[in-house]
Design brief:
Layout (H helix, E strand, L loop, with lengths): L1 E9 L2 E8 L17 H8 L18 E9 L5 E4 L7 E8 L1 H7 L3 E4 L3 E3 L4 E7 L2 E2 L2 E4 L5 E4 L5 E8 L5 E7 L2 E2 L13 E3 L4 E4 L1 E3 L4 E8 L5 H6 L7 E8 L10 H8 L9
Parallel strand pairs: 5-11
Antiparallel strand pairs: 1-2, 1-4, 2-15, 3-18, 5-19, 6-10, 7-8, 8-9, 8-12, 10-11, 12-16, 12-18, 13-14, 13-15, 13-19, 17-18
Length: about 270
């Protein structure tokens, strides 16, 4: 399946956002989208506060993720074809307040915030305002957990350890970060170039804006206020896709051939 992707412009990351191709295609440089175009539908799907709010559910203890401050986050598009409709690997991090982390674990050890996932293709972790959040690994189950504090913003940091681009589909509280709806492997994702780091700072509202991830109460979470569903609060996930026809751990055959044909004394053109 051929997909179009978008580059996030930022000093600390190089990332791309993928949008599924329509039968007629869509070029972001073709001007403002019409009301019925795929681009217009995508824009509408990224406006999560349309319609009435859900009634607050009975309060549950611990943290969830709410709708934080709006920030600029520009995207543009590129092509990426997945090797498979299923990810090459996934990663899961659970989060809660410190008391909740204690309640969720019988024995745990503190570990480095950035840990490998998806067959070591990526390293990833959760970063707060003042650095990476305290991160733990549970004995026995091997679950990773981070401890946050209500009212604090956070971001998901992913580094590509491969030699080719990867696509990252990310979710928070069971919701896709690019449209705020139910997460799925079929959703669009972000592209990270080899050796680069992506920092996902919030739910996308449009092609130029995001709302920061912010730790909240369960009843005040985006999942509850928008969808009335708190079943999956407290979990962050990533799915990693490789590019079709490319071994992510090796140089491409085309690049090897180009380098093999390079001339040290090429004649002036």
């Amino acid at each position: 399946m051929k997909l179009k992707a978008a580059v996030l412009l930022g000093a600390s990351l190089i990332a791309l956002f993928i949008s599924s191709c329509s039968p007629t295609g869509y070029s972001p440089s073709a001007g403002a989208p019409s009301a019925g175009s795929d681009a217009a539908r995508l824009e509408k799907s990224r406006t999560p506060w349309n319609g009435p709010m859900q009634e607050a559910a009975p309060e549950r203890p611990g943290l969830a993720t709410g709708w934080g401050d709006e920030r600029n986050s520009e995207i543009s598009y590129t092509q990426f074809t997945r090797a498979s409709s299923q990810p090459a690997g996934t990663g899961i991090i659970f989060y809660n307040d410190p008391e909740g982390v204690e309640a969720m674990t019988s024995r745990k050890e503190k570990v480095a915030a950035m840990q490998t996932a998806a067959g070591e293709m990526v390293e990833w972790g959760v970063k707060g305002r003042n650095g990476f959040l305290p991160t733990y690994k549970e004995y026995g189950y091997g679950r990773r957990l981070v401890a946050g504090n209500k009212g604090s913003s956070y971001s998901i940091v992913v580094k590509n350890r491969c030699k080719s681009a990867l696509e990252i589909v990310a979710s928070v509280d069971g919701l896709d970060v690019t449209d705020g709806r139910t997460a799925s492997f079929s959703k669009s994702g972000y592209i990270i170039q080899p050796g680069k780091t992506l920092e996902i700072e919030g739910f996308r509202k449009s092609e130029s804006k995001i709302a920061e991830f912010e730790f909240s109460s369960v009843s005040g979470s985006y999942a509850n206020l928008k969808h009335g569903d708190t079943r999956n609060v407290g979990v962050i996930g990533i799915a990693v896709f490789t590019r079709k026809g490319v071994n992510p751990w090796k140089w491409s055959e085309g690049e090897i051939q180009r380098r093999g044909n390079a001339s040290p004394f090429a004649e002036a053109q």
